[in-house]
Write a structure and sequence with these properties.
Layout: H1 10-20, H2 22-28, E1 30-34, H3 36-44, E2 49-54, H4 61-69, E3 75-77, H5 80-86, E4 95-100, E5 116-121, H6 126-139, E6 143-146, H7 156-162, E7 171-173, H8 176-185, E8 189-193, E9 210-215, H9 224-227, E10 231-233, H10 246-263
Helix pairs in contact: 1-2, 6-7, 6-10
């Protein structure tokens, strides 16, 4: 195939649609990734790469090495105008890739006695989702649960914010009752982050099998947790603000759970 130089090319239009349209990503079971680092992490996590798109004039050394390492993956050269059309951000090494989505079955997840699950309940902002996935990777969380079967897991902004960490942990999508039953059957302690909780997060034993549930900043936790057994915890706030950004709050509690596992509960 020769170089693609027209932004009206059918392939280019399809790539833009995949980047912009979450429903189209889900229906096609495909998503796009920008940048050598993020692409490398997706491949390292065994996501199937269907093709590379690259622009020679702006290709970084890291991207050149990446292309050379994967000779079996189809490669398509594009003009700089086309490349700028298909990418979301600048400085992405001159490389762009098309991947197949990956789904995980709950039956494949075998938790350990100190497993940590991070749970997203109505979190809408891809940037927060990605930032939390990066934290989850740093802590060593065993799995991610998203309580929405239509969740936009492979949103480009989520991939960008996670710096590719979205690929490092299995992500399960399910409904609230399915998740709660899963935890009950495996003796997971469900801890919910809530500014209305009585106990601070550091006063709670977070050492055993733990599922940390985070809600959206706008709506908070869903009403499901009003009736299902869970342990609400709060982060103390001593100023004008009554809560933290959800990605910051999640990081605070996750690292406390890690601290307790490493040091023993104090």
């Amino acid at each position: 195939m020769g170089i693609i130089s027209s932004v009206q090319n059918a392939t280019v239009k399809d790539l833009v649609k995949l980047r912009e349209n979450s429903r189209y990503r889900r229906s096609e079971n495909k998503f796009t990734v920008e940048g050598a680092r993020e692409i490398s992490r997706a491949i390292a996590s065994r996501f199937q790469c269907d093709s590379f798109f690259y622009c020679t004039s702006i290709l970084s050394e890291e991207a050149k090495i990446l292309l050379g390492q994967h000779s079996s993956v189809p490669k398509v050269e594009v003009s700089e105008a086309v490349f700028q059309k298909i990418v979301l951000r600048e400085g992405t090494d001159g490389i762009f890739a098309l991947f197949r989505s990956k789904s995980h079955c709950l039956d494949t997840f075998v938790p350990g006695k100190h497993s940590i699950i991070l749970v997203f309940d109505q979190i809408e902002k891809p940037g927060n989702f990605g930032a939390l996935l990066r934290t989850a990777d740093g802590v060593g969380v065993d799995a991610i649960f998203v309580l929405d079967k239509n969740a936009d897991i492979y949103n480009p902004n989520a991939i960008r914010s996670s710096v590719g960490a979205v690929f490092s942990r299995p992500i399960f999508t399910c409904e609230h009752m399915e998740f709660a039953t899963f935890c009950k059957d495996r003796n997971f302690k469900i801890v919910t982050a809530s500014p209305f909780a009585k106990n601070n997060y550091f006063e709670e034993d977070l050492q055993g099998p733990l599922a940390l549930v985070l809600g959206s900043e706008a709506k908070g936790l869903s009403q499901f947790w009003d009736t299902w057994e869970s342990v609400p915890v709060k982060i103390p706030m001593n100023g004008l603000a009554d809560s933290l950004n959800v990605s910051v709050a999640g990081a605070v509690i996750l690292y406390e759970a890690l601290r307790q596992r490493q040091m023993g509960r104090i």
